Amino acid sequence: MTTIVYPGSFDPLTNGHLDIIERGAKLADRLVIGILKNSSKAPMFTLDERIAIMQASISHLSNVEIISFDGLLVDFMKSQHAKTVIRGLRAVSDFEYELQMAQANRDLYPDMETMFLATKVEYSFISSTIVKEILRYGGNIRHLVPKASIEVIESILGGKK
Ligand code: PNS
Asked: Using a 6 Å CB cutoff, which residues line ligand 1?
């Protein structure tokens, strides 16, 4: 059984992430979404909120699991019996950081492979950072995040007012 891990902070999940999840799910028997518990960037959404947003968005995918993790990605990969990680690439600007991370991970876990999926053009400008920036100023993000997650996001934000 092939297990692929798709790791990230998902703060919050975007349409670009969901596209990678849907395509990654076709490449693996089991796709594990690894949600980083404590990102060095202070998250806008708590871990439970990020999981709730993710759950609402992936209910149509039967071979996808959500598991949170802390510590090194390579240790999480080993705990999931996975040797392949996928990451989305939006633009050349993503590449430098992603290459460095792939090489650092491979240095720590030589059997590990990082597979890059090119983001669809229509999602290439979308990032969690952009979504948070728009949210902070009360703008519309409904076209940037999965439809199924909008109600969850609105109820979380409503509760924080
Ligand atoms: O999409 P993101 O939020 O930039 O995801 C980054 C993530 C979670 C993949 C990365 O920060 C990570 O793997 N963190 C765990 C610590 C680690 O193993 N870092 C890479 C080797 S130094």
From this structure: 7-9, 36, 72-73, 101, 104-105
